[in-house]
Amino acid sequence: MSVAGPEDRPFTAKEAKALCREAERLLADARALYDEHTLVHQSVKQALGAFRSRLARAELDAIPVTRLNDVTGGRLRIGALERAGYTTVLQVLESSPYYLQLVPGIGAQTVSRLHAAARQIARAVEESVGVRLDTEDRGPGATDLVIALHRLVDVGPDLPVAVDTARELSKRIRPLLTAAHPARGRLRMMFAGSGRRRRAREALAELSGLLDRARETRLLIVQVTTDLLRPPVSEFEAWTDFEFRASDYYSLLAELAGEPGSAIEGLLPDDLVAKVGAQELDETHLRVSLRGYQAFGARFALTQRRVILGDEMGLGKSIEAIAALAHLKTEGNDHFMVVCPTSVLINWVREIHARSTLDAYPLHGSTRLAAEEEWVRRGGVAVVTLDSLHRLKLPPHVRIGMLVVDEAHYVKNPRANRSRAVARWCGSVERVLFMTGTPMENRAEEFRVLVSYLQPDLAARLRRSDDVIIGAEAFRKAVAPVYLRRNQEDVLTELPGLVQAEDWVEFSGADLSAYRQAVAEGNFMAMRRAAYAVPDTSAKLKRLLELIDKAEAAGLKVVVFSYFRDVLASVRTTLDGRAHGPISGDVSPARRQQVVDEFSRAKGHAVLLSQVQAGGVGLNLQAASVVIMCEPQVKPSIEAQVVARAHRMGQVRRVQVHRLLAADTIDQRMLDILRSKTKIFDAYARRSDLAESTAEATDVSERELARQIVEEEQRRLALGAFTPGSVTP
Question: Does the keyword ATP-binding apply (predicted)?
Fold first, then answer.
């Protein structure tokens, strides 16, 4: 007897049995993966819980016993406890009722209240304690957690896809097998009712189609299960892998431990938060797990359509953009475009390939036309430089699903050619995402310009009204629908500390002579690098060598930044050539990435030299934990950018930033002026909403800054009266 399918496809009883057995094996494979993943996941959560308890104990041991009164409204006799030697909440928590009652004036009822208050504080600490893994503090709890995490991280980006697929297969196959059961025997099928026979035939047909489609899926499930079943690695292997893939470990940790909602949301209004939260985010085309704040950023871009993502540098804005593109791909969009500075073009292509299934085409160099033709034909992401965007012409049938403009502060001048090109494209594309960690470098008007490309009506409302600027707080509230920013300290609680030091030196005789000559000539740039004019006696170079020697003794990698090529050349010569780079403006983006890769792969200590303009954008330098700035920069955003190359997601060591400064020179004058610039950025753009600030939003230009400093130094050193136009750039 044969069993006909709904389309008269015959299944003999033997074929039905074979089909069901194959479906049972697939179901068993799916269950094996699901069960093994559950066990490994539970082991990680246990290790995380134990580690958090250790961290909480350390914090409780630092909380003074007087805090118990805050919980009970001052009703406890804390003075008696302190006189008896109880100084911290942890000591009270771990002390038995018997010993506490030995304290004069402490009875059974007071002991009960003391323990209740201590437990309340302990619960609050455990819930809020930040989990930070330190490669220099590999205690038992931290090591157990890293080893447990390694089992999940090492499987790679296929893990979540495989687990979701296994879960879905389990849901579908089980009821189909039940429905198909009568078809496994001629007699069963003969005595089944007509309704059951029909359902059995339908179930067999559906199982057959499902198994045909699941050939590759089954291989994925078996491979991932095999990876999960591997025994735990050694302590050395786990910590070594953590150093190379720290961001993957912390992404998983954030998923397990959760991230604070207010930090993820960037202080957006509640109604907008709800709207963004309701936005679906399909991760089918992603090859990376998103942090909670990253998923929220991608949803914000999708919900609001034309926005500025202003997350602080080092938080992974590119991943948020790629996630938005990947979602739009699932909705049927085929062509996307990323516009960026030339220096980061290669990095964008690599990120798109590594983080998603999307194809990326660099429309740059000798292969530009061929890449453009292939992109138009096949779809994917075209990566175009800011300076070549104006040359790009597309066929009418190509529709851009989303335009991403990286380092968007480069188009803040509406009269520049690249700004005009970006504005034209913004006018023809429905979805636009601007990305910049420094949306305002000098004045609030620059921020308004960026908003004008996206929401002209909103930008118009932000302009002066009755000659009065609307003020910082109102400004942030007004731009909330178009601007999202999260800062490192808010969302990367695991990020190692940032230690900033000002290393002041006294000029040598030769340094001072070179400096006085530059001041007399009104040569601003020569004043900035006078400390390196005579390398053999340079006080700054001497201090730089001391810092590098200390880093070498500790096995730490160092990156040295300067605005000037000749300063970097002096540093390289002083180091006898034992440095990578320098990375400068005339080094191609591909070569820059190659230099960084060589520096990162070097075992132990290494030094990388870079101009701030070339190395401050697009390059990831998490391998470095010591940053040395040879001189102050004209804009605070420039220094923030170069520091963020090292102090970013994936960094596993505390980052030391050293600024080499010469006393009573241009260095001091620049710091004083630049601090006022930083205040303006903090007031208007650092947070997405709510902070107190002056309403003033004007600032000196770079030329005016140079004029002002030269004039002050000529006056202070009595080197002649300043005359307009006498400053040499």
Answer: yes
